[in-house]
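Deviations from the work plan: none for this task. Representative record:
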Amino acid sequence: MTQETVNVLIIGSGPAGYTAAIYAARANLNPVLYQGGQPGGQLTITTDVENFPGYPEGVMGPQMMMDLQEQAARFGTDIRNGMATSVNFSSYPHRVIIDEAHEIEAKSVIISTGAAAKWLGLPSEERLNGKGVSACAVCDGFFFRGADVAIVGGGDTAAEEASYLSKLCNKVYMLVRRDELRASAIMQHRVHNAKNIEVLWNTQTDEILGQEEVEGIRVIDNTTGEKREISVQGFFVAIGHKPNTEIFEDYLDMDENGYIKTVPGTSRTNIEGVFASGDAQDHVYRQAVTAAGTGCMAALDAERFLAAKEVGIVEGIPTIAMKE
Ligand code: NDP
């Protein structure tokens, strides 16, 4: 196994990772960034991004990620292909294995591995992804102004996104597989109070209809087995996200869904020198701009940590001797 030592290791290449890289590189910390399995992250599978500040005409998701990559590279970030496959945070410096072949000894680690939307797994869902099928109402709802849409899920995300869509769309069908919502009372209240949201209970999606774009859905009533078709132009999936944090499970405090816990108002995790940013630690906002914001925080926190480490001070935590 090959080995090297780095000051700042950034894992992940979404808005959080690249923003952390821009800040760390400009602070002369020589960051190394591994892009992971989906270089550019979730934004590479969206089309127009119209809510990222600074792009008055909007920008295509993949283009925005190329711009961020270029900006991170411009200041000297060492951007590499590769996937962190395991970590050992039990001693300092931290150890991260890349592609099971390369060991990095990292004086600080910024985790920005993101999250992945869960999908139903239908072939039509995959085929029409980005052509009317979306896992983000806040990102894509605007394209369905005045249209009829459907959203799958009964949790807080689905309820929140259904009420968001109800303000833009003509009609919102909410497809709930059981006879009750999992969402909190306040979110349920919002759903039931919106005149143009129709909850279809005990309903599952059989197929999304349309070749080039979404034209409708075929749904099944779980109690009777009856199938029927509904005309919609947009299909939103809101059945949860899964943070990409499995490899950190043995070391980092996480909530019950696997989101990394950070000290409020910071990017610090329970392990000193390990910082978390973006969707890997945020199940509430999950926006490119908030991910970028926390990436910035992580780089600044890492910079301060390294500076304190150099003079042997780490606030409130016994200092671990640095290896020469
Ligand atoms: P949840 O896991 O809470 O809910 C997922 C929903 O999708 C459930 O209703 C589930 O049904 C349904 N579902 C799962 N798989 C399928 C499937 N294959 N077909 C049809 N339906 C399916 O995920 P959320 O993203 O909604 O929320 C995640 C966490 O984030 C929660 O803790 C939530 O409270 C929190 N959150 C908080 C918000 C806020 O406070 N404003 C906003 C958004 C999220 P079933 O109930 O039958 O399992």
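Confidence is low (pLDDT under 50) at residues 316-324.
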